[in-house]
Write a structure and sequence with these properties.
The chain is of the alpha+beta class and 239 residues long. It is 31% helix and 15% strand. It has a single domain, classed as Glutaredoxin, CATH 3.40.30.10. Helix 3 crosses helix 5. It is built from 5 helices and 8 strands; from the N terminus they run H-H-E-E-E-E-H-E-H-E-E-E-H. The longest helix is centred in the N-terminal third of the chain and has 23 residues. The protein has an 8-stranded mixed sheet, covered by helices on one side. It starts with a helix and ends with a helix. The chain is globular and about 40 Å long. It is found in: Cell envelope. GO terms for molecular function: antioxidant activity; isomerase activity; oxidoreductase activity. InterPro entries: AhpC/TSA, Thioredoxin-like_sf, Thioredoxin_CS, Thioredoxin_domain, Thioredoxin_ResA/DsbE_sf.
Length: 239
């Protein structure tokens, strides 16, 4: 009986270990309901901005979010309706092919303004999908800020806070890293299927001036140089 009890204990321990391993590789975010991708590209351990201790929270009111957004210094989403310089920009021809951006409306992170993705035309666009609880997203974010600073009127750079129930932490993430480019929010995972985000985040979507998706990079960028190379390859824009 003693050996039988010991075997039972080992079996239970093995089952618990298997369940824990499966949870790390699943699609649950910090609250157990949001997709976090798979493998090592996404982490659910707290970043410097933290994650919900209980997994549930009450979102701060709109005035509080507006204050946090202002402190972060994020560019207004209004500039996304036309080219980054305030007018429609004629970019060099991008590689042929691609599907139109999905007809999805997302809220501007920290404000009540909405942006329809299918309206992002007139300039080539780099759309970076991230979350404040994603370690690799934090590591690559400065490369996108440098790209935004160098782009001027030739390129639009946009971030999307994905599957994140804590907009206040997302705004703190942007403030801590000095991210000034426009940011949208997709807490309801509306981009999950269109951009194939089951593969994980971060993901970067390259969109030509006609609003067509020409490439989706399902990986983090290790350097600004690597990011610029893909901008040139997929969008025909040399910076």
């Amino acid at each position: 009986m003693r050996h039988g009890g010991r075997r039972t204990a080992y079996a239970v321990a093995g089952l618990m270990l298997a369940l824990l391993s499966a949870g790390c590789a699943g699609t649950g975010g910090p609250d157990g309901q949001q997709p976090a991708g798979v493998g090592e590209r996404v982490t659910e351990t707290p970043t410097s901005t933290g994650t919900p201790a209980s997994g549930k929270s009450t979102a701060p009111d709109s005035k509080r979010l507006a204050t946090l957004r202002a402190r972060a210094g994020i560019a207004p989403c209004a500039q996304l309706t036309v080219g980054p310089g305030g007018s429609v920009h004629q970019a060099p021809p991008a590689p042929p092919g691609g599907k139109p951006l999905p007809d999805v409306t997302l809220v501007c992170l920290g404000s009540g303004r909405s942006v329809r993705l299918s309206d992002l035309k007139g300039a080539p666009t780099v759309l970076n999908v991230w979350a404040q609880w994603c370690g690799p997203c934090r590591a690559e974010a400065p490369h996108f800020q440098k790209l935004y600073a160098a782009a001027g009127d030739s390129l639009r750079v946009v971030g999307v806070d994905f599957a994140d129930p804590r907009p206040e932490l997302a705004l703190a993430f942007a403030r801590d890293l000095g991210l000034r480019y426009p940011q949208l929010a997709d807490p309801d995972k509306r981009l999950l299927a269109p951009f194939g985000l089951l593969a994980g985040i971060p993901a970067t979507v390259f969109v030509d001036a006609d609003g067509k998706v020409v490439h989706v990079a399902h990986r983090p960028y290790d350097s600004e140089r690597e990011l610029r190379q893909d901008v040139r390859t997929y969008l025909g824009v040399k910076l």
